[in-house]
Amino acid sequence: MARVFNFNPGPAALPLAALERAQNEFTDFKGTGMSILEHSHRGKVYDAVHNEAIGLIRELLDVPEDYHVLFLQGGASQQFAVVPMNLLPAGKSADYILTGAWGKKAFAEAQVVGTARLAGSTAEEKFTRVTKQQELSLDPAAAYVHFTSNETIHGVQYLDAFPETGNVPLVCDMSSDFLWRKIDVRKFGLIYAGAQKNIGPSGVTCVLVRKDLVEAGRTDIPKIFRYKTQADENSLANTAPTFAIYMVRNVLLWLKEFGGLAAIEKQNREKAKLLYGLIDEKKGYYKCPVSPESRSVMNIVFRLPTPELEAKLIADAAAAGFVGLKGHRSVGGIRVSAYNAIPLEGIQKLVAYLDDFASKNKA
Prior knowledge:
By secondary structure, the protein is of the alpha/beta class. The chain has helices at about 15-25, 45-60, 75-85, 100-115, 210-215, 225-230, 240-260, 260-280, 305-320, 345-360, and strands at about 5, 65-70, 95-100, 115-120, 145-150, 150, 155, 170-175, 190-195, 205-210, 300, 320-325, 335. It has two domains: about 15-255, Aspartate Aminotransferase, domain 2 (3-Layer(aba) Sandwich), CATH 3.40.640; about 260-360, Aspartate Aminotransferase, domain 1 (Alpha-Beta Complex), CATH 3.90.1150.10.
């Protein structure tokens, strides 16, 4: 059976080269007579894979030495709670900037842990754009400022400047656009990203965090939830999700061979330009609700004239080999998740299909 073009939002498409490498190594990893799934997380064989994955992230992003690179479990949703558990001490508050559903969830969890205040939101505009710096009401004494760089459900993304927070640590949920382009890690106190969207399978979360924040973290929480516990043990304080990290390693090797972050950003922007170009060309048929300056490169959302046409498009496209186009149940519509692993060819063929669908299925 031929492989389809997988536009699911996460778990999402993985590079074929990364999958084929896993296939070739699956039953006998590097002549050990064992699968990587069977190796101990404390053995030398797995340890080499683990450290290679960490090293590749450091290399691709130029991660400074005063940052830890951690592989944790529980997804970004667990980080919604773990971030304030570690970084929000009693007597202080944290600022939250909301541009979509995931930011709202992070804010709600922080309010359970401690004091969190709303520093900016585009909820009144139905999350159709990101915030502007002049709109933010930031507390200079906040423990940190949290925002989401790309909202997968609403299809909005910080494309130009990230929020400026002065000396207050900036914390970012970067789950759905981690490694889509080069960023300056030093602008952030902490970055977290569930792997299942852009860098690997589900089951592992990557965290980049400044070492001074780890050292100053709260100690009145269970040890297993302290960043310091995992930082001191190279993310091996307990049994790591070894196969997920191995797959992240494979994806990172593919990304490096592709040409790194400059090359993948160029392709990602070209893919987005093609798809948004068609949407704007057919604006009487396809409609993107997101303000142009905030349109996500990773998650392109749009509507058709009727829900019935949207359902037909989703079904017909799947039959034609384009799967995962259904928008999130909370907002409906169509969503194209065009992560790193989606080749340019996939978007070119989808654009041609959407053009043809609009011609044959009048409102």
